Amino acid sequence: MKVKTILVSQPEPASEKSPYSKLKEKHKLKIDFRPFIHVEGLSAKEVRLQKINFSDFNNVILTSRNAVDHFFRITEEMRYKVPDATKYFCQSEAVAYYLQKYVVYRKRKIYVGQKSVNDLEDIFKKFEKESFLLPSSDVLSPSIPNGLDAMGVNWQRAQLYKTVVSDLSDLRDVYYDVLVFFSPSGIESLMKNFPDFEQNNTRIAAYGNATVFAADKAKLRIDIKAPTPDTPSMSMAIEKYILEND
Fold first, then answer.
1. With contact defined as beta carbons under 8 Å apart, do 134 and 156 qualify?
2. DSSP string covering the chain, please?
3. Which pLDDT belongs to residue 124?
4. How much is the mean pLDDT over the chain?
């Protein structure tokens, strides 16, 4: 069956030059974007229950823009002034660049990995006697704590925000040819919002092994998978499917 409509379970890209824009124009598609999950910050009271003393940490490990936002949000709510001498260890350049929203970049000590905190191993070793704080959500990829432990980093987790299922009730009677998912949480949101969901002719596109596993567990048929050697991005995987089923 031909693909004419696609729903991507993420916010709409800010750039008009996104791969989805090109896909839409090339194949005359209707592509909508709708986050199936969203992030909510924990209250200062909830954070205090974790018995975290921010003044004990001169080093902060930042793995996402959400971690950046909620670290500075909660320290402000708790009236804790983050010292200028604080060192920031950013998982990627994107996270480090986003950090400029809160600090004067050139006046801070900021260390940047390529894609993972593991890229910073040599830097961590220079501060092996110091303590590190890891702001995170309620969902934390095991690779992060496992990597920090393997490197011998003295770290503590601070859960500052959580992933919440979005209300999708307005989509109950809306049909799309393809639903695109990038995380197990997106699959969970679909099933919680629509426990009687019947896939029928709807194609499911899943990015990453964890998402594929979640879709399998929910007994969904997966028609499009990414990344693969031929299709490293989801937009490429969708286009390949369209060309093969035109």
1. yes
2. ----EEEESSPPPS-TTSHHHHHHHHHT-EEEE--SEEEEEPPHHHHHTTT--GGG-SEEEE-SHHHHHHHHHHHHHTT----TT-EEEESSHHHHHHGGGTS-GGGSEEEE-SSSGGGGHHHHHHTTTSEEEEEE-S---THHHHHHHHTT-EEEEEE-EEEEE---GGGTT---SEEEE-SHHHHHHHHHH-TT---TT-EEEEESHHHHHHHHHTTPPEEEEE--SS--SHHHHHHHHHHHT-
3. 93
4. 94
pTM value is 0.78
The pLDDT tens digits for 148-162 are 999 999 999 999 999
- Domains in the chain, CATH or no CATH each: 5-9+16-36+168-244 (3.40.50.10090), 40-162 (3.40.50.10090)
Q: Are 143 and 167 in contact, with CB atoms under 8 Å apart?
A: no
Residue 145's Cα: distance from chain center in Å?
16
Closest by CA to 35, choosing from 143, 166, 139, 171, is: 166
Longest dimension (CA), the chain: 60
Q: How far is CA 62 from CA 46, 163, 204, in A?
A: 20, 17, 32
pLDDT (mean) for 121-147: 92
Q: pLDDT digit string (tens) for 82-94?
A: 999 999 999 999 9
- What pLDDT digit, counting tens, does each position of 43-68 carry? 999 999 999 999 999 999 999 999 99
